[in-house]
Amino acid sequence: MAAISAFPPSVPAPVPAPAGLTRDQLLELYYYMLLTRTLEERLVALYRQAKVYGGLFRSLGQEADAVGSAYALDRARGDVLSPLIRNLGSMLVHGTEPVEILRQYLAKGDSLTRGRELNIHIGDVARGFIGQISHLGDMVPVMAGVTLSFKLRKQPRVGLVYVGDGATSTGAFHEGLNFAAVQRCPLVVVVENNGYAYSTPTARQTAAKSFVDKAAGYGVAGARADGNDVLAVYEIAKAAVDRAREGGGVTLIELITYRRKGHAEHDNQSYVPPGEIERWAAENDPVDRYVARLTGPLGIGRAELSAVEARVRDEIDRATDLAEQSPPPDLADALVGVYADPPAAPLLWYRRGLRG
Amino acid sequence: MAAISAFPPSVPAPVPAPAGLTRDQLLELYYYMLLTRTLEERLVALYRQAKVYGGLFRSLGQEADAVGSAYALDRARGDVLSPLIRNLGSMLVHGTEPVEILRQYLAKGDSLTRGRELNIHIGDVARGFIGQISHLGDMVPVMAGVTLSFKLRKQPRVGLVYVGDGATSTGAFHEGLNFAAVQRCPLVVVVENNGYAYSTPTARQTAAKSFVDKAAGYGVAGARADGNDVLAVYEIAKAAVDRAREGGGVTLIELITYRRKGHAEHDNQSYVPPGEIERWAAENDPVDRYVARLTGPLGIGRAELSAVEARVRDEIDRATDLAEQSPPPDLADALVGVYADPPAAPLLWYRRGLRG
Amino acid sequence: MAETTYLEAIRDGLAEEMERDPSVFCLGEDIGVYGGAFKVTDGLLGRFGPDRVIDTPISETGFVGAAAGAAHMGLRPVCEMQFIDFISCAYSILTNYVATARYRAFLPCPMVVRGPSGGYVRGGPFHSQNPEAAFLHTPGLKIVYPATPADAKGLLKAAIRDDDCVLFFEHKYLYRRVRGNVPPGDWVVPIGRARLAREGTDLSIITYAATVWRALEAAEQLEREDGLSVEVLDLRSLLPLDDEAIVATVKKTNRVLLVHEDTATGGIAGEITARINELVFEWLDAPVRRVAAHDVPLPAAPALEDFVLPQTGDIVAAARWLAAY
Amino acid sequence: MAETTYLEAIRDGLAEEMERDPSVFCLGEDIGVYGGAFKVTDGLLGRFGPDRVIDTPISETGFVGAAAGAAHMGLRPVCEMQFIDFISCAYSILTNYVATARYRAFLPCPMVVRGPSGGYVRGGPFHSQNPEAAFLHTPGLKIVYPATPADAKGLLKAAIRDDDCVLFFEHKYLYRRVRGNVPPGDWVVPIGRARLAREGTDLSIITYAATVWRALEAAEQLEREDGLSVEVLDLRSLLPLDDEAIVATVKKTNRVLLVHEDTATGGIAGEITARINELVFEWLDAPVRRVAAHDVPLPAAPALEDFVLPQTGDIVAAARWLAAY
Ligand SMILES: Cc1ncc(C[n+]2csc(CCOP(=O)(O)OP(=O)(O)O)c2C)c(N)n1
Ligand SMILES: Cc1ncc(C[n+]2csc(CCOP(=O)(O)OP(=O)(O)O)c2C)c(N)n1
Ligand SMILES: [Mg+2]
Ligand SMILES: [Mg+2]
User: Fold this and answer.
1) Which of C221, D303, A252, A264 is nearest to B217 (CA)?
2) C171 counts as catalytic
3) Which residues are CB-contacts of D311 (< 8 A; sequence separation ≥ 6)?
4) Separation of B160 CA from ligand 4 center, angstroms?
5) Cα(C230)–Cα(C215) distance, rounded to whole angstroms?
6) Are C277 and C306 in contact (CB under 8 A)?
7) Helix (H) or strand (E) run with residue D119 in it
8) Is the distance from CB of D80 to CB of D53 less than 8 angstroms?
């Protein structure tokens, strides 16, 4: 997590807070939720300027679910995160820098994928997050194997993988979860139930009353929380991470949230019942709810929140300037690194002499 | 089901019996269980004479589960059955003739697959059973589609598909069951928990306490029965079939049974704990249990059972003679019928003139 | 005769077949209310109702298998892959269950699996694939991949009427970029016949899908700048291949350039080269050569994608080499 | 140097690598207690324990994906498909996730997927498959398919040490039928190099796996009966292919017969024909021809299987035609 020193020095002495979090940590959660939302807003601006390549996927209204769950991991201990397209917040918590996200969306040569992949299909195994692919469900067996390696090597490390309500319908989800359950891998599987898979409502995705009902069928622990309450999410995720670390195996967590934007920017959400989005925005925005809680019962002053807001704005402005200056990908790189050996694919015959 | 007239004419007037079955039906269940067991014994004899091609899969000790469940279907109403390798009994109940099974195992040209496929990978859609393939799980989505067609056409027909404890781990099982559940297809999914998948005990296949625990995760009805009690199996299957026919959707049934023989004849079962097989054979043989019940509380005389036994022996002897006389497949048939159009694949260039 | 886009032609073909034959129905992800990721099925739900335009869970094996089961019972399902890249998730059930159904069990399995395919759209490695080669060694399947609105409509109608499983690949780059006349009435294009897209005498380019248009561009440039007369054969059907048309063009020009968007290694140009060797080796005045994608996963950044995929300039360069051979 | 069967050679290679490198482990169905459907992993559980020989649920996508995840973390998993026919169930995760891991995300993914492949054993359509062609257009994968005990051991060791995913196809017909000497010590055969199985000057047969032995039989018969000197090149590695060795044999004999057990249409003979056209067209005195399986699912009955698959007599007939050309 970001260095605490980044906060104003004059922070009052920590007071005990919910979920065993310090006052600084409570503010840090706010920082990441806001960073996620603001960064996505910046990306939308760039998208409208046609600077973004590929689809732009929003997590508006889901920031608490992403941030709160990833916050339960311990990067210092080598925990590994497997994010999906709605998990920008999780990635930021786990150490991805805003400038890396921007470079990626702008398809820059110095992005984490060097322009090879789109949106947040990025990873850095050294920093403990694994790049996703489009094919839904695949990351579950992959993370079963990541965490199997922890078990085989007796490392006290934990993995966390997300699946959408829609992705639970894939065979890969089933095979991966079952494998991890049988092997008692230290894995937390978070089902983000945001009501829709593209245009498909949850009721057409499964006949189950809730996704947590699947836990018993795999013989794993199950838990469910309000995905828009960042502290509730953190608590439930932390318990699952601790259980995994102690050898208790897999936990299937269902987080109830709502996808307020379309599947991607192009989607006009014509299929959503009128008023539904507005209701969630007005009554159940995770940032608003958390601000109310911070400034209310948790007794954090508005000034401190403003400081966080200023920091976020400033960081994203600087990151954007930096990212825009990045160079485009280098053509010579296009054929490099499919295999360790050979180091590059051959240039095709009619290009020799012509280019490259 | 086989014509009742095949039974001795002097049968006493039917008396009310369990599961709403007539006396003749109770005897018919015995007939099919015995037919299954005896036919498999005949196949073993032929296998030892090296007349059988491919593996020989036994259902010894599972006859009640296969026969009792398939007996719940109504062929006259066009119900469709999807059997697996342990479901010889189901196929016989659903109308497959012993001679057809023998021809298939002997790879004869007039077998239902004309020598193209092995063991009981056979079907006849006209008679309401669908030929399985080796890839486990696939028959579940296929039967979801078969029964979806019943629903779309408003036909009062039902489908029944089997999966082994091992096959429940496949993605195809998951995707097919979920699809059928969402569509409320008139489908009964029978999980035959016989303790092993090849050499793998159920505990290494799933961490779930029981397979019926999966039902809630799909939002379908779940039921569980002693798979070696043919009447209990019939009752639970009949209830599920009726529910499906009335528009109640999918039922997931778990039948507890035990695979007394190896995965196939070649398997020496070295991995089975000593005494386990013997215990099941001595204490929980489905035929023995049913005979005791028939001759005890159900008051059926030994003579009547002997008549059935004689009939079975006789039918199988005649079927064997018939099958052995069948011709081998015709070479010219090898290239026929991959597509409706073209009718046959071309003979390769170096064979023209040489053969065919 | 009004001009239609490639996408509209597909939608029209689908709607006409659903109109004509009540046993035809569609299933796939987000094809109903939303009308599909590319709006190919837009309006069909309203027209034909939820029993004939079924939104499925995210389960390619599930709904392809379900389609097969329904097909056994006499229906004619049309499955949409949201992107053809996800047909890989149904690879086993398609190649093992569906493809063999008739041969091993005499089960009718008339069904179509269709979806947006191909690159040149900055879609990256998982939204740009050309899977045809992976299915080419699977007897029991048919494969078509049209390049024009007329073929898109005519081949889709033929695919739906075919009594076996047809993989119908639609090139997403062409969806809205290509318009053309579609003959009126019940327009059906038989599966298994190639289309002569351009007549020529000096050299033949054999290709299909999006690269047909690049080949035509190249042909014009070669005529303009080099006075070369280039013939372009649009295969349209990849399984079965139209050997007659391939033989005819080779006999006519004696020089063949194979062009496709799939990777060079393992792409179907290999199969075509083998057939040319077998059928008309003596007629070749030059080696059969390939223009295809470089052997890497397709990168997303525009400059990289353009570098990896075959471009008009590549076809021109290769054709000049062949002509000069 | 004792003679070893093809199967023992694989087991030895596996055991030696597990001995040498603690990061190597095996996973698959029934490979532990039971030792695998063909007993390839027999004894490994006792020797290396349950953490390194893992019996999995019936989930090819599950354990192949798990292997990839473990490989990212520095382990070297070896997955067994009980029959290679079931690799189709992991087709998506292999071609999309595993094959692209290094290119799209710089993720190391050193793993092997191995299993009993091929026909001539009356296994029917689902226990006799040769899936190599389906993976040939997937950059990021490597494919090997040995024909001898020495190559089986040496290539398996190379595959396990390779830093990318290698598909290791084992021909089940050869498991116990072929014995041979395996060089002692740490015997490793580099991936990507073909093996000259027989020297000759009149004609080249290029093949791999079980048909190598049929080709050798045919070569002897042709020498005996026709006085023909036939060279046999065993490819061993299918991705990457050994272009140098292919070029060398074509330049030497100027006549090429490609033989494989997979179907003619879509089999990898097409790719090889294309490469020969590109690299040594001028050296051909006759068309490159194929001997392969007929284009049907493989039937189980002995007479039918023998009819559909390429036999020694077919190779002889085709070679005579080529030699007389
Ligand atoms: C196997 C597969 N099939 C289809 C798709 C196309 N697709 C991409 S995202 C998506 C919807 C995902 O919904 P959900 O899992 O609920 O995640 P959310 O977008 O709601 O976060 C679909 C169908 C895919 N990526 N993978
Ligand atoms: C997808 C797939 N993987 C592996 C196999 C190999 N295989 C055939 S039967 C079998 C065990 C099946 O066990 P179960 O489902 O419990 O059925 P049972 O034999 O006990 O009736 C296995 C692993 C297969 N047929 N399909
Ligand atoms: Mg969702
Ligand atoms: Mg079992």
Assistant:
1) A252
2) no
3) D214
4) 18
5) 9
6) no
7) none
8) no
